[in-house]
Structures are given as structure tokens and as C-alpha cells.
Write a structure and sequence with these properties.
By secondary structure, the chain is mainly β. It contains two helices and 20 strands.
Length: about 260
């Protein structure tokens, strides 16, 4: 299920500041939006239930929970009543649940119009990014651009008024997958496991996090080798390149614990 970001901003919606938020239903879709005054917000989830009290499940997790305005939409659920609430966490561990809200049909027209340029009123819309002004678009061009962002990408547009928007590209969270060749064992030592060491030539380069080369092993005679922690200058993350017959087999990283 593709979740599209739907942005509603402006002073007219100050009443929707967390823990308040807006839930509206239009064209068989439900739109949830909010204003976030907390720059220290580290997690924000939208949750849905069909009884307003229990059985909530998370239907959206904000990639950038600290954004001052954000939202999402999803298809209307096939139930008589659908409730939404927002769970958010601030830096330091404090967490909050907003009061639950029932979907309200056909209440979005006025709110969308107040934050979207009128197609019949041709004006220049400024789209900015972190490097400054990215584009100056006439209203019809901007509306096509906005629709393509929402339909085809996970990027967001943050609106400050109806003629100034900031483009924020979606940055996926890195998911680390441990290597099958270079990893730490249960005692915390680095293990190098090369099942084909007898028939292939392997070359291992180990780097500090800043990219500086720590050391390298240019040849392996055994299938498995365990390195003493004395080979490393500190605990923490290290990156590596493993070459097989002088071709990159893997680039990854490993973590050494502090019990040096």
C-alpha cells in the first residue's frame, strides 16, 4: 500500500498543532495531517483502530518526524467507524498518544484550497531545496509537478504559503546486514570466514570510520581466521573491503564492543 504525504500548513490550522491533528475523508480516501511544534521529535507514528479504545495498529511511520508540517493518506476503510491517533516520541524518551479522532466525511475542500494555488489564478510558485531556489513555476506547471511528487515518489513538499514550497527528497534509513564473511563472534573477536580460501585469492582492507586505512591482509591460507582485538585501536565501527581474485566481493562494516 503506497502511502502519500499530504501537506496542510499555515496559521489557519494552528488548532491542529500536536496533540491536536486533522482527520478528513474525501473521494474514498482518508487524509491525516498535523502541525508539529517539537523540533526534538524522534519518532512519529499514525495509528488506526475501529473501536477508538484498543486494537490500534501503526499505518504510517514518518521518515522525518521533526518536520513542522506533515501528513499522509490512505484508502477509506470498509467499516462504519474508523479512528486515528498519533503516537510521538521526543528526544530523551518522553512519549505521547493524542486523543483518538473519528474520520469526518467531505471536510477537506476548504483546507486544500487554502494551501494549494488556484489553477485559474496564474502566479509564480517558488520551489526551494537545501541549496536555495530550485525552480520558479507557473501555477499549472506547479500543480502537475506537485501531483507527480505525490503519485510517483516518496519525496515531500513543505508549504509555507500558497506560493512558496520546500522540496525535501526522501532519504531511506540504512538497514545494516551483517556480513557472512567478516563478523564478530560471541566473544567479540573479529572472525574472517572464507570457505574458498584454498582456491581463490582474497585481499582484505579494513578502514576507520573516517575512511583511513587501518591495515590490510593480502593473502589467506586458511578458511577461517580470528583476529585479536589488539589489532584494533579502539572499540566501535570499522568498514572493510573484501576482494576475491582482485575483484570487490563485498563492502560492509562490523562493530567491535568496548570490552577491550
Amino acid at each position: 500500500m503506497l502511502l502519500l504525504v499530504w501537506l496542510i500548513v499555515g496559521a489557519a490550522y494552528a488548532q491542529n498543532t500536536l496533540p491536536g491533528f486533522t482527520v478528513i475523508e474525501k473521494n474514498n480516501r482518508v487524509f491525516v495531517s498535523w502541525v508539529n511544534p517539537y523540533e526534538t521529535c524522534v519518532q512519529l507514528n499514525v495509528q488506526r483502530s475501529f473501536d477508538s479504545i484498543k486494537n490500534y495498529r501503526t499505518v504510517y511511520s514518518a521518515a522525518s518526524p521533526e518536520l513542522p508540517q506533515n501528513g499522509f493518506n490512505e484508502p477509506k476503510q470498509p467499516y462504519t467507524k474508523t479512528y486515528y491517533r498519533i503516537f510521538y516520541v521526543l528526544n530523551g524518551g518522553a512519549y505521547f498518544f493524542t486523543p483518538a479522532q473519528l474520520t469526518v466525511p467531505d471536510a477537506s475542500k476548504r483546507m486544500i484550497n487554502e494551501t494549494t494555488p488556484n489553477v485559474n489564478e496564474v502566479k509564480t510558485v517558488t520551489v526551494s531545496n537545501r541549496n536555495g531556489t530550485a525552480a520558479l513555476l507557473a501555477t499549472p506547471q506547479f500543480l502537475k509537478f506537485k501531483d507527480s511528487i505525490f503519485r510517483e515518489t516518496k519525496d515531500t513538499l513543505v508549504a509555507f504559503n500558497d506560493s512558496f514550497f520546500v522540496f525535501k527528497p526522501f532519504v531511506p534509513k540504512e538497514v545494516w546486514k551483517p556480513s557472512n564473511f567478516i563478523y564478530t563472534n560471541k566473544e567479540g573477536y573479529l572472525t574472517i570466514n572464507l570457505p574458498e580460501a584454498a582456491i581463490n585469492k582474497y585481499h582484505l582492507k579494513i578502514y576507520e570510520e573516517d575512511g583511513s586505512l587501518l591495515f590490510e591482509i593480502k593473502r589467506f591460507k586458511e578458511q577461517q581466521l580470528t583476529l585479536n582485538k589488539a589489532n584494533f585501536v579502539h572499540a566501535g565501527w570499522y568498514t572493510f573491503e573484501l576482494l576475491e581474485n582482485e575483484k570487490i566481493l563485498e563492502k560492509n562494516k562490523f562493530y567491535l564492543s568496548k570490552d577491550f
